[in-house]
Structures are given as structure tokens and as C-alpha cells.
Amino acid sequence: MASTLKIALFISIFCIFLVSPITSSKPHPLDSLTAAELLLVRAVVNQSYPSSNHKLTFQYVGLDEPEKQLVKSWLSKPTTKPPPRQALVVIRLNEQTHEIIVDLSKRSVISDKIYNGFGYPLLTIEEQEAAADLALKHEPFLASLGKRGLNISEVICSTQTIGWYGEEKTKRELKVVCYYLDGTVNMYLRPIEGITLAVDLEEMKISQYIDRAVPPMPKAEGTEYRASKLTPPLGPRFNGAPPTPPGQTGFNIDGNIVSWANWKFHLGFDGRVGPVISLASIYDAEKRTYRQVLYRSFISELFVPYQDPTEEWYHVTFFDCGEFGFGIYAVPLEPLNDCPANAVFVDGYYAGQDGNPVKVSDVMCIFERHSGDVMWRHTEAELRDQEVREVRPEVSLVVRMVATVGNYDYILDWEFKPSGSIKFGVGLTGVLEVKAVPYNHTDQIKEEVYGTLVADNTIGVHHDHFLTYHLDVDIDGDANSLVKTNLVTKRVTDKSIPRKSYWTVQHETAKTEADARIKLGLKPEELVVVNPNKRTKPGNKVGYRLIPGSAAGPLLAADDYPQIRAAFTNYNVWVTPYNKSEKWAGGRYVDQSRGDDTLAVWSNRNRGIENKDIVLWYTMGFHHVPCQEDFPMMPTLSGGFELRPTNFFEYSPVLKTKPPQHLSWPNCTA
């Protein structure tokens, strides 16, 4: 029997490489797993459990990245043998979670551990769809539809996670929520309220069904957003972007390494977090070398708590990366609309529930952005005998992905500027999560409805979005410190001077993790990650400054169960020492987690962070009070933050940039 399995595994592996060869015998150590490698992982894992009585499911497969120093050692001598290619595999088998490490070169499992802690792994699309389909065959649910006068052929169902609310024991369950089409594809705006339906994922059967009430159904009229279905009066038509000559992208892609202007970085893709930017370095013309800025960066978690505490809604508190997967829910990008004409598109792969690779075509785009903004300019206005004016347009490089997790579309941008800045942008659009109510006018409302009446019978429920970024900074090397530059008001003591006050700076270096927990907006300060071992010619420590966006923090009570699980949002800024295993702020197993494996817990160790290899964590927050303009389709709400060089260069890195050569356009005036 064993020899037969070995032969089958050999044939499977042979076919994998025959059909989909790995393009390089020496891939980059940080390359995402290819389709061929995902197939190899599947074959190895299935060979380890050949006679299972229960269905084996792949919940997550991703690169088990090598230790940082191994990667850096290889980068310093790229002709040497690279670190081993390994995959982290999380499976469910016999109602247990297995953490498996597969060595791709050895084609074998080198570690297999059963996880006995709290929480469950990333959900698969397949099990969510199977759970949703159960509702459409459940007789009590069909009776409820009949009571409401609804046609089953117009009903579509989706799933929601149930969270954790102090239960001692839990089981893998999902809530199923259903919507009514009948004249619209905008399903989220027509919820079928009054029903609680839960599904046991292990047995794949309905474990709870309650029909409490028959509230009104929001109407389909006014919810259409497809251009082909819209009726007058219509809005303005926009001009398209001017075409880009073929082949003129302005940047170069070699494997997974992107080079543009003075930047170079590695681009990856992961089913849980989406885009991964690694080894971002900028060329210093003065020193004639690339200098390190970021070792590895990605969105670690997205927490979305809704603010309706009623029986049917209190559980609606999503962790989009750890429960569903930003990469799994990434969508193909549309040329000319999602990305401009000069964009280059990149495909991505993740493992489906059966372990087979799932391809997401055009999942990321890379493009030069010509924004029409000014990078720098100056006019010597006081020179009377000559005219001196210099202007440089702002040009940057953008990496973009869109994840559609349920009703929301998240537009994720990493933008690199010639000045050395990296901007991290997020756009929120899509459709509101709404609740059906009996009201058509605010004057009718005599109770708390936990949101805004945005249309007849439709409440847009209050909610938050908190995105936590993992930023493994390596500012000119991996020994870094966080410096808090406090702005302090002082009194003028010289009585001969009429000024009474001024402000100055006081520098404070964070020595431990507790020193680096910061709620932004409480006091005037600047935050700079410095390399204390490197100085400029005038003696300043080289660094990069964190320029935050609008400050927003959690408003839930600290002892509320969703906030316990999302304690990583308690501060906008955290700093931890580098630890390969500490990359997902909500913990490895987020579904029904209990908050015992989060960034907040790791930080409580209060480890030393001065002059160490450190990771900067930044949480961007949005408090969303819906309004009528968000209905039926929400215009993009944008936010972001920036890492900007601070005493990193000896002088402005864009001083010697050349202005573009512009075409002469004909005079079109009458």
C-alpha cells in the first residue's frame, strides 16, 4: 500500500512540473507560492493523510517565509544556495486544526502540529457557499418566505461570522443572512430581516433557526447602479485618460522585483493579506547605492464592528483578513477604470479548499501616476532683472489591489515617490450594510435605530473600519529605534523681547514596547524611526517619519468582547521587536478568537526595542455615520498615511530630477 502511494505521489509531482513548471531553479526566497508549488503542497499533504475517514480541507496555504537574517545573507551573496522554500499549511481534519510545514525541495512534511488553542482558521469560500445553500432547502425558511410573500427564486444568501461572547466552548458555526433581488442586483440593500439562521460547519447542517418577525422589505426602486440600467436624468460623462504609447510603462519588472525611478522592491501576493511589499530600497545618488527602507509590509488585519446591539445584529463584527482573507476576496481589476491605460497587470494564486490553486487574473496593477500635482517648485519673485522659475510635476508609482469582502470594496494602494516617501492609501466604496425598518421619515422614529434613515424602510447602520498595517522597517539597516519628538511650548525669559512664547522639540527614544504605544492626536508630536548607528554629515540620525492620517480610535468599551478580540486597535501606533511569527495582528486563528493571541498580548511582554530590529504597526481608522449620499452606491471614502525620509539624505533627493519634455499642442482658441 505504501509503495503504491509513493508511486502515485511521484507521478503527481512529475505531472505538476510537466504541466506547470516553476520558472526559475532559484526563485527569490520571498516569492509567493506559484501554482505549481501549491499543487505540490497539495500532493504532499494528501499523501500524508491517504486514508482519512473525514474530508481534509485546506484552510490556508502560504509562504513560510525564511528567517530575516537568512534572506539578508542570501541577498548579500545571491550566487549561493537560497534558503529552503517552505509552505505554511493550515488544514481541518477530523474536526481538528493542523499546522503543517511542507519543505518544497524535499517534497515532504517536516512539521505537523495539532492546534488546541482558541479560535478557528481562515474560512474557505467553498464552505461558506455550502452553508448559504442550506438555507434555500430548509423547510422552515421556505415557510418564512411564504409568510412574507417572497419568491424563493429571487432569494440569495450569504454568511457572517458569529464572533465570541464569553462562551466556554465553541464550535465552527456561521450565521446565514439572506436577501431579496426582485428587480435589482444590489442584494445587500434588500435584507430579509427577522430571521436567525446558524449552520454547523463540521456537520454542515442548520443548527439554529428562529423567525421572530415580518418587518417591511426595502424596495428595489432606486437601488440600481449598472450603467446599462440607469434612467434619466443622468450625470456628467467624463473624459478618458489620454492614451499611453505601447510599451511605455516607465518601470521594469524582473520576476517579482519592480524597479522604477530611484525605487526597487519585491512584490508578492498572499491569500490572507493580499499584496506584500518587501525589500523596498531607494537609490541614493550621493552614495551611489540602494539604501533599505522597508523589509516587509502588508495590511495585517481589518476590523469592522457594526454598532447595532440587537439580537439579530450584535454579532456583526468582522475581521476581514483573519476570517475571510483579503487575497481570497480580491477581484480582477478593470483596465481604464480600476487602473489607467499605462498599467501593467499581475495575476495571483491562492489555495482553494481542496488545495488546488485558484487563479485571480489581474489581481494587482502597477502604474505610473501623473496626478497633476506639483512635486516641487519655486519662483525667485524678488529678482527684478531676470525670471527664474523651476517646477517639477509629481510623478509616482502605484501598486493597487481591490478586495471585495461582502458589501464593501477596499481599494488598497502602495505609492512610491521619488522624494523617498511611501504613501499607504485605502479607499472604501461599495454598498452599505443596511437594516430593514418600518419607517419612511425621520419624524416617525421614536426609538434608537443605530444608524441613519437613508431611504424608505432602510437604515444604514453605524460602523467602524480599522486597518492595521505591519511595517517591518529597516531604515538604512535593521537596527532601528522609535523617537518621539514632542513639540513643547516655552515662555520667553528675556524681558527685552516682546514675544512671550515659542515652541521647541524634546526628543524621547522609546526603550520598550510600552513606551511605543501611542494614541495619536492627544498631544503634538512627531514620530521618527531612526537608525541610531548612522548619521548625516551634520550629525543627524538618519530616519523616516510617520505622517499619520486622521486619528481615530475604538469607541467600544474595553471589556466588550469584540474589542477584547480587536485590542490591537487600542493604539494607533505600536512597535515590537522583529519576530517572524508575529505578523497577523488579530492572531493566527481569528474566527471566534478570544483575544489571547494578538498584537496587544505580544506587546505586553514589554520587550526592549531600542537599537533593535523592530516592526512598526499603524492602525488607520474610520468612524462611519452613513448618509443618503452613500446610497445606493457609496462614493469612495479615502484615507492614508505616509512614511517620509527625515535626515535620511544629505539633501533633497529630487533636486536634480529633470523636468519632462512636453509636446507642443496646437492653439485651439477660436
UniProtKB/TrEMBL annotation:
Keyword tags: Copper, Disulfide bond, Metal-binding, Oxidoreductase, Signal, TPQ
2',4',5'-topaquinone PTM sites in chain numbering: 408
Modification(s) after translation: Topaquinone (TPQ) is generated by copper-dependent autoxidation of a specific tyrosyl residue.
Gene3D superfamilies documented for this protein: 3.10.450.40, Copper amine oxidase, catalytic domain
Keyword Cell inner membrane: no
UniProt cross-references to PROSITE patterns, sorted A to Z: COPPER_AMINE_OXID_1 (PS01164), COPPER_AMINE_OXID_2 (PS01165)
Record domain Copper amine oxidase N2-terminal: where: 28-114
Membrane-crossing residue ranges in chain numbering: none
Cofactor binding remark: Contains 1 topaquinone per subunit.
Signal peptide boundaries: 1-24
Group of enzyme by EC: oxidoreductase
Cofactor entry: Cu cation
One of the GO BP terms on file: response to water deprivation
Domain (Copper amine oxidase N3-terminal) ranges: 121-213
Top-rank taxon: Eukaryota
List of catalytic residues: 320, 408
Family per similarity comment: Belongs to the copper/topaquinone oxidase family.
Protein name as annotated: Amine oxidase
Gene: LOC110422138
